[in-house]
Design goal:
alpha/beta, 5-stranded mixed sheet, binds coenzyme A
Length: 324
């Protein structure tokens, strides 16, 4: 029987500053009513000091996941950080996390798959476990999107929050049941953020910074369609019905997206834990933060079936069905 990824510990980190919708309405022309009715978001955590960084949140979440399952940093042979808001172009966040944790035996690298990043990291660890190359991985989804959103563009900046979530995953015969992922680069223009300016002396470039751009309605349509397809495909692969899954842990972008998936599957919303009301969309961090909240609330029992699913810029999507 082949070895697959089993989640054995979780951790998360949210910045201390909480910004409510009313706080935002003092900065721009918006309202608590508009934001809550369109998205379900009430408040989000945003970094508010130089010491709160993508790296600091990743290390905090990673340490807490290791403590949760009593794994020592030296036991890790793989660290993957999923992020689009790294503090550095190089080294990778994963190498910097490795240094901070003292995880001297790990291979470390980052993945850029936006809001699907945590699923891509989990599926990558799972593929390595199946190949036999690694046995114990720390995977982290972390974002400081407050650095890259346009704070003069009310239709995007109100949606996002900062944070980190982490999981320790181990090669096991009783974890992952089925997974999938995919990309459609041709659709990528609906959600993008250009990189920094060019420093090449032979090229004259516009030095103005560029921020996150999103076509909200196109992304909404893509999300609902693709996420429903992924869930059906996974259940079919595993020969299960929607009702067999104990918890659906979906990317936390918008409560209306989550509710429409629940409706499409004809399932009660209480199978879909959610934290978008107090975290906003934390991109790659959203699913592991939610997983950690559900775990720490004592809601996960051994053998529970979890379906994790995310979608995001790229365009990208990923999903995993696994046993807790
Ligand atoms: N406060 C008040 N009004 C706002 C606003 C804000 N923060 N943001 C936009 N508006 C206004 C718009 O200007 C527009 O006004 P107009 O009709 O006078 O032009 C109006 O609200 C409606 O905007 P619209 O784009 O039709 O809203 P919507 O119902 O599509 O909701 C989103 C917008 C962004 C909430 C929704 O499209 C969405 O959630 N998309 C998916 C985003 C997502 O999941 N992204 C992450 C992917 S990982």
């Amino acid at each position: 029987m082949s070895m697959r990824a089993k989640i054995i510990g979780t951790g998360s980190c949210l910045p201390t500053k909480i910004v409510t919708n009313d706080n935002l309405s003092t900065l721009m022309d918006t309202s608590d009513e508009w934001i809550q009715s369109r998205t379900g978001i009430r408040e989000r955590h945003l970094v508010s000091s130089e010491s709160e960084t993508t790296l600091s949140m990743a290390v905090h979440a990673g340490t807490s996941a290791l403590e949760d399952c009593s794994i020592l940093p030296e036991e890790l042979d793989l660290i993957i950080v999923a992020t689009v808001s790294s503090d550095f172009i190089t080294p990778s966040m994963a190498c910097m996390v490795q240094k901070e944790l003292g995880a001297i035996n790990a291979t470390a690298f980052d993945i850029n798959a936006a809001c699907s990043g945590f699923l891509f990291a989990l599926n990558t660890a799972d593929a390595y476990f199946q190949s036999g190359l690694y046995q114990t991985a720390l995977i982290i989804g972390v974002e400081t999107l407050s650095k890259i959103v346009d704070w003069t563009e009310r239709s995007t900046c109100v949606l996002f929050g900062d944070g980190a979530g982490a999981a320790v995953v181990r090669a096991d015969q009783n974890g992952m049941i089925a997974n999938l992922q995919g990309s459609n680069g041709a659709g990528g223009h609906v959600l993008m953020c250009k990189g920094r300016s060019n420093n090449n002396p032979y090229i004259t470039t516009d030095l103005s910074p560029d921020y996150l751009y999103m076509d909200g309605q196109e992304v909404f349509k893509f999300a609902v369609k693709k996420e429903a397809e992924c869930i059906h495909e996974l259940l079919e692969q595993a020969n299960l019905t929607p009702d067999d899954v104990t918890w659906y842990l979906l990317h936390q972008a918008n409560q209306r997206i989550i509710a429409s998936i629940a409706r499409k599957l004809k399932l009660p919303l209480d199978k879909f834990p959610s934290n978008v009301d107090h975290c906003g969309n934390t991109s790659a961090a959203s699913i592991p933060i939610l997983l950690d909240e559900v775990h720490r609330a004592g809601d996960l029992k051994e053998g529970d079936l979890l379906l994790l699913s995310g979608f995001g810029a790229g365009l990208t999507w990923g999903a995993a069905l696994l046993r807790w």
